[in-house]
């Protein structure tokens, strides 16, 4: 621990507060780091007081004066975050042989009148070896010098040299050597004033002096009485020069210690760049011009930066014959902007705390010096008048119009408190409750903010003046923004007046009617130019849409749209009609507010079920608005195995015989009635209701009736065939689907929502390819080609062939395995189904060869593609 030779300083420090330290919890926002001969603590919350914990029992409150005297400094940013810096040789560190230093600090946060202030304690132990002959530390509020104290055993020197007092005055030892055990500090002489003070007086004047196991430490405020300014290479520097005297009986030893630190005048500013000049040869610290600069480092907030970090932040350090020059862009990473108000005008400053760390050796004395400067720099105030912007659209009706206003830009320490209108003052919360939509918008890098507001023309705070003779109305908004800068709560304001002149616009009207096949919607915009966009269903009326469905008149236009258009919705379905609805909205293009809404619903005659004399039926099921989550392709007849012959996202078409698919028959007098029902299978109905509980069940009954006792006459002629019929190769539309089974049983398959499906390398994948729309038992499905790609484009590269010309790829080390297909309850025609097993693999990113082969390794996502052929089966 530090040894205070002066009992006066010891009493001064301990008299501050002398209470028992309490055990306090740790906090994640307190972060301590060892940075050379400095300890840095980052403190996120805004604290109220800082205490040093001395010897684990005494708590000493760090007042600003005591912090300067004892080697502590603080910095705060506008957001309340703080950094706390401490010299390793501060007054309260436990010093273990000048090798290990342990510091415990305590932070008290603001509490309330009901509870005590929360207290958080943080400790840090740092090692620092080896020390140089001389260490100089310049911080924002103090300057510190530490010199090595080593001397051979002086007990061999005669205790009573001849000459008495005269000899005493001549036995001085100076330089880097200090006193061995048994010596006592007696006086400090300051240069150039030659003022002599004893140790107690030095402490009372605000200086600090300490004798550690191997070193002498002196510390002084920058503007102390005994410091002075000296111009060094054109740079003003603050100098502290001392000689400390130690006595042992008739022997006296002197130790010289000098600290030199830069002043704010060492910095030059432009609006874009900060330039800091540091003398390379700091004259008061050198005994000769012969020296070697060994190291030059730059950092921020006491932490060194490497060359990559400096380049990323656009910092630069240039070493010339006379100076070390540091350049930092204004606004660079590592600093922060602060807001200020002067005469109700908005200004900003930029603050950053660079560090220079130098190491040199003097060639004559063979002594090395470590020199570290923590140098906070703040630019002069820069005017940043707020910009008021008006984004109000003027081509709209007054009932829908709003003032769209923006004020900025500001630093993050500025907050909007209220807005004053001619008739009232509203807080931000009251503005939003009134519908003004006040928003704070941040810049992409989260360093600046603007305030955006929308005030409807219809609000009473807007003054309106109608000029009937000119056919216009003027809207005027006067407002004063009330702003404040935190944390000092400095208020300021910004006034603005905005006007808008709108033509007196008559809102458009919308009418409509239906014929047997179409909707007809007419929009009459009177004598004004259209100032709106049209939303038909869920689609905006664009140029392509208008060319197909729109007819223009002089002051109106008509949209003619088929009732089955995707832009309309089906409300209900009956045996011989469909009720369809078309929604039309006129929207303000600037804020998407609805100017006019119109909905038209009509019933259209439509034959949904057809009955044929050969005993077959067809039925068309349509998706209705009350079941929006329905997938028509999943509908079935009463027999769940009977799905649609064709389906899309709105329709499902069924074709079946009256004696199949669960069709029932009953007799009513002389009529046979066949009935069936189109619905979702039970398991899908349960799943749909679980996800959308508000949807109705989908059920559509279809029926056909035949007269039982009726005779039809059919005439036909026959003639001999010239030859046997044969199947000719041709093209047509067939529905084929490929599915991934969950296991080798091929009973359950992955659904659409399961994808993408995750598999490990070489894990089997069970595929099934099925011809779904054919009931012809005389044709068979052939897998011609199957391959995998990295994306949905089936022609993309790279690709890997699994099946070639119906056979396994001979180059595949893990070839596909074909599985036989047997008829069962699901598979009616086995030739229509093919099953095979492939093994999971992945593509190499750079393994595409000119031939198109792909080396397989590593895990990736990819897509399977296939090409099939339909061939007639040969007769047995």
UniProtKB/TrEMBL annotation:
Q: Which GO terms describe its cellular component?
A: extracellular region
Protein's UniProt keywords contain Secreted:
yes
Question: Does this entry carry the keyword Nucleus?
Answer: no
Signal peptide (UniProt feature, chain positions): 1-21
Protein name per the record: ZP domain-containing protein
Record's SMART domains? ZP
Question: Sorted alphabetically, which PROSITE patterns does this protein's record hold?
Answer: ZP_1 (PS00682), ZP_2 (PS51034)
InterPro entries for this protein: Ig-like_ZP (IPR058876), ZP-C (IPR055355), ZP-C_dom (IPR042235), ZP-N (IPR055356), ZP_dom (IPR001507), ZP_dom_CS (IPR017977)
Where is the protein found, in the record's own terms? Secreted
What would be the name of the gene that encodes this protein? LOC116365850
Q: Which UniProt keywords apply?
A: Disulfide bond, Glycoprotein, Secreted, Signal
Which lineage do the record's taxonomy fields give for this organism? Eukaryota, Metazoa, Chordata, Craniata, Vertebrata
* Pfam families, A to Z: Ig-like (PF26562), Zona_pellucida (PF00100), ZP-N (PF23344)
Domain ZP stretches: 610-876
């Amino acid at each position: 621990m530090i040894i205070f030779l002066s009992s006066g300083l010891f009493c001064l420090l301990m008299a501050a507060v002398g209470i028992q330290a309490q055990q306090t919890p740790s906090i994640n926002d307190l972060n301590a780091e060892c940075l050379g001969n400095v300890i840095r603590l980052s403190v996120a919350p805004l604290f109220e007081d800082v205490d040093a914990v001395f010897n684990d029992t005494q708590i000493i409150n760090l007042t600003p004066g005591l912090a300067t005297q004892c080697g502590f400094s603080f910095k705060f940013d506008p957001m309340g975050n703080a950094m706390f810096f401490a010299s390793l040789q501060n007054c309260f560190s436990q010093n273990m042989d000048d090798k290990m230093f342990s510091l415990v600090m305590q932070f008290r946060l603001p509490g309330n009148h009901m509870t005590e202030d929360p207290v958080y304690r943080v400790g840090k132990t740092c090692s620092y070896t080896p020390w140089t002959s001389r260490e100089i530390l310049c911080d924002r509020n103090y300057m510190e010098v530490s010199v090595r104290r080593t001397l051979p055993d002086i007990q061999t020197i005669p205790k009573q040299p001849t000459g008495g007092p005269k000899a005493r005055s001549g036995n001085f030892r100076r330089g880097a050597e200090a006193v061995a055990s048994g010596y006592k500090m007696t006086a400090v002489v300051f240069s150039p004033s030659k003022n002599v003070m004893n140790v107690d007086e030095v402490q009372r004047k605000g200086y600090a002096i300490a004798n550690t196991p191997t070193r002498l430490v002196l510390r002084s405020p920058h503007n102390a009485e005994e410091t002075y300014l000296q111009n060094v290479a054109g740079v003003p520097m603050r100098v502290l020069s001392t000689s400390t005297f130690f006595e042992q009986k008739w022997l006296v030893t002197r130790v010289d210690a000098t600290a030199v630190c830069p002043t704010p005048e060492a910095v030059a500013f432009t609006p874009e760049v900060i330039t800091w000049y540091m003398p390379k040869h700091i004259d008061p610290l050198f005994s000769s011009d012969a020296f070697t600069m060994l190291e030059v480092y730059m950092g921020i907030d006491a932490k060194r930066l490497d060359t990559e970090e400096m380049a990323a932040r656009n910092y630069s350090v240039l070493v010339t014959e006379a100076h070390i020059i540091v350049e930092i862009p204004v606004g660079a990473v590592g600093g922060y902007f602060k807001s200020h108000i002067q005469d109700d005008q908005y200004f900003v400053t930029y603050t950053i705390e660079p560090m220079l760390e130098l190491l040199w050796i003097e060639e004559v004395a063979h002594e090395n010096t470590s020199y570290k400067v923590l140098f906070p720099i703040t630019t002069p105030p820069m005017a940043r008048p707020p910009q008021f912007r008006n984004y109000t659209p003027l081509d709209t009706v007054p009932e829908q119009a709003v003032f769209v206003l923006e004020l900025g830009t500001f630093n993050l320490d500025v907050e909007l408190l209220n807005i004053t209108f001619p008739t009232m003052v509203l807080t931000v919360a009251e503005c939003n409750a009134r519908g003004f939509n006040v928003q704070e918008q941040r810049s992409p890098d989260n360093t600046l903010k603007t305030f955006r507001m929308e005030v409807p023309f219809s609000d009473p705070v807007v003054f309106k003046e109608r000029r009937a003779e000119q056919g216009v109305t003027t809207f005027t908004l006067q407002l004063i923004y009330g702003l404040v800068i935190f944390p000092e709560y400095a208020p300021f304001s910004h006034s603005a007046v905005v006007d808008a002149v709108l033509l007196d616009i008559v809102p458009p009207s919308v009418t409509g009617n239906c014929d047997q096949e179409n909707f007809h919607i007419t929009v009459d915009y009177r004598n004004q130019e259209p100032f709106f966009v049209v939303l038909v269903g869920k689609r905006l009326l664009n140029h392509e849409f208008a060319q197909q469905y729109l007819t223009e008149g002089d002051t109106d236009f008509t949209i003619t749209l088929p009732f089955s258009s995707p832009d309309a919705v089906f409300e209900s379905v009956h045996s011989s009609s469909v009720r369809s609805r078309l929604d039309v909205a006129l929207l303000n293009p600037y804020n998407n507010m609805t100017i006019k809404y119109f909905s038209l619903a009509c019933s259209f005659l439509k034959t949904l079920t057809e009955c044929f004399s050969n005993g077959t039926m067809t039925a068309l099921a349509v998706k209705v608005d009350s079941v929006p989550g329905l997938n028509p392709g999943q509908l079935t007849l009463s027999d769940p195995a009977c799905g649609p012959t064709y389906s899309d996202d709105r329709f499902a078409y069924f074709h079946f015989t009256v004696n199949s698919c669960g069709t029932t028959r009953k007799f009513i007098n002389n009529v046979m009635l066949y009935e069936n029902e189109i619905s979702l299978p039970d398991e899908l109905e349960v799943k749909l209701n679980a996800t959308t509980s508000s949807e109705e069940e989908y059920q559509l009954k279809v029926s056909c009736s035949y007269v039982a006792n009726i005779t039809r006459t059919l005439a036909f002629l026959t003639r001999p065939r010239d030859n046997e019929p044969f199947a000719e190769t041709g093209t047509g539309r067939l529905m084929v689907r490929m599915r991934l089974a969950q296991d080798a049983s091929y009973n359950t398959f992955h659904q659409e929502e399961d994808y993408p499906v995750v598999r490990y390398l070489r894990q089997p994948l069970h595929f099934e390819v099925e011809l779904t729309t054919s009931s012809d038992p005389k044709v068979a499905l052939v897998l011609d080609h199957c391959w995998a790609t990295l994306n949905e484009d089936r022609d993309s590269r790279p690709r890997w062939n699994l099946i070639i010309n119906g056979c396994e790829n001979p180059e595949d080390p893990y070839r596909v395995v074909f599985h036989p297909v047997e008829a069962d309850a699901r598979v009616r025609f086995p030739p229509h189904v093919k099953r095979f097993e492939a093994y999971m693999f992945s593509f190499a990113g750079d393994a595409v060869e000119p031939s198109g082969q792909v080396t397989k390794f590593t895990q990736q996502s990819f897509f399977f593609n296939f090409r099939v052929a339909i061939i007639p089966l040969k007769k047995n």
